[in-house]
């Protein structure tokens, strides 16, 4: 019998177990085959892979165990992002949610980390796609796995990052619906008085939904005409600090918004640390309920609906149309990168194109 190959006979027939020694790890690497030829071929390939550092002995740690360990280290700040900075709390909360909902319930979670092959991760992607899961959700599910496997390779727990070169659907969920000023006015006027303050603030400040849910009157200075953004309420009902350092900011209160906020304050009789838009002074609004009431009002008025997040896109686009530079818009909107402001949150409407055409006509007429 060839060196490093053991014949194993049993009720399922003869098997051939090939073995190589990893001096680096001081462990044997073994694999069983149905034929002697396959065992010999694997052993040659395995010895070459060991010399190249692309083969490691199997680890006992499962994908779920590795994920839990990675999350603990990331929260402690001992695992950094690719930019060598600490992961944002919101990012880690999203990773936890994605792993819990879409990875842990699958067979992949119980596989040993070192046994996972690219086809296994691709099967997870394909399965989610077959269930009708959106492209953005699939990508958000794969992102934590990529971080976990990248860390495992760096720590030499495994040799190959099998999350590379996956066929993941492109994110086609970018929100392109941006309301014009006239549309925004009509949408707000169609709402009940109880909801106008919230949507007016969303349209003219671009605050995130979580920031609107946690906004308190102590954050609103009507005399100075500024809103201080300090906190947000996440989807799990937890009050968190601003999404990033840039997220903690002050936002100007425009004239049209000042009137709406003052009216809302007088109507609700709230102040101090009371929630501005809560269903009660201490109970935040429920997004689905707010959305349902708005959709009903807009359907009755035959208006195209919009979401709170699309209001944020609308506010950003109008800031640019008003001539604000991207650095100022970035500061008001609360982006950590001006690239995000430029690439994802500014849109060109037909009205903007018409104005640009008029400017060009004036230019060429000179």
Note the topology.
Blueprint lengths: L4 E6 L2 E10 L4 E7 L2 H17 L10 H14 L12 H14 L15 H13 L4 H20 L26 H9 L3 H13 L3 H6 L5 E2 L4 E4 L1 E3 L5 E3 L7 E4 L2 H14 L18 H14 L7 H14 L4 H8 L4 H7 L5 H16 L1
What does this protein look like?
The protein has 366 residues and is mainly alpha-helical. The chain has three domains: 48 residues; 90 residues, DNA polymerase, domain 1; 176 residues, Intergrase catalytic core (hpI Integrase, Chain A, Orthogonal Bundle), CATH 1.10.443.10. Helices cover 49% and strands 11% of the residues. It contains 14 helices and eight strands. The strands form three sheets. A three-stranded antiparallel beta sheet has the order 1-2-3, with helices on one face. The protein has a three-stranded antiparallel beta sheet with strand order 4-5-8. Strands 6-7 form a two-stranded antiparallel sheet. Helix 2 runs antiparallel to helix 3 and helix 7 packs antiparallel against helix 9. The protein is elongated, with a radius of gyration of 28 Å. The termini are far apart.
